[in-house]
Amino acid sequence: xxxxxxxxxxxxxxxxxxxxxxxxxxxxxxxxxxxxxxxxxxxxxxxxxxxxxxxxxxxxxxxxxxxxxxxxxxxxxxxxxxxxxxxxxxxxxxxxxxxxxxxxxxxxxxxxxxxxxxxxxxxxxxxxxxxxxxxxxxxxxxxxxxxxxxxxxxxxxxxxxxxx
Length: 164
Description:
Blueprint: H1 6-18, E1 40-52, E2 59-64, E3 69-77, E4 82-86, E5 93-100, E6 103-109, E7 115-126, E8 129-138, E9 143-144, E10 147-148, E11 152-162
Antiparallel strand pairs: 1-2, 1-3, 1-11, 3-4, 4-5, 5-6, 6-7, 7-8, 8-11, 9-10
C-alpha cells in the first residue's frame, strides 16, 4: 500500500497559491496591524479536499471550486486569546485567537471532534483584504450496512476583510 503525503501536497499548494518566498510575500507595509483587528469577514473561493480510497487506503487530494465558504470573526481580543466565530448556519461560538508573528490564528475545537484553524496573514491580497487559509478536519465514525464514514480533511484559500 502506497500513501501519498497529504500534508506535503496541501503545503505545496498553499505555498504556490500564497506565493511564499517571493518578495511580494513579505509583510505588507500597508497591511493592518493584526493586534488591533476586532472583526474579520472571510471569503474562501478555492479549496482542496483530502480523502482515502475505500479499497486501497491510498491518500489523494482533489482541487475543487465549489460554493464559496464565508464566515466572520468578531469580538477578537488577542490579549485575551479569544474571539467569536460567526458562521452562516450555526450559533456563534467562542474560540481561541492567537497572534504569532505576522499571523493571526483562530482555533475552533467542537465537542464532536471537529478542528478548524483559520490563519490570517499580515499580507494584503487586494483591496486591503488579508490573505487567509481555513483548514478543517473531522471524523465521526459511523458504520451502517454498505456505508462507513471516513475522515474529512479540507483546506480553503481566500482572504479576510477587516471590519470596524
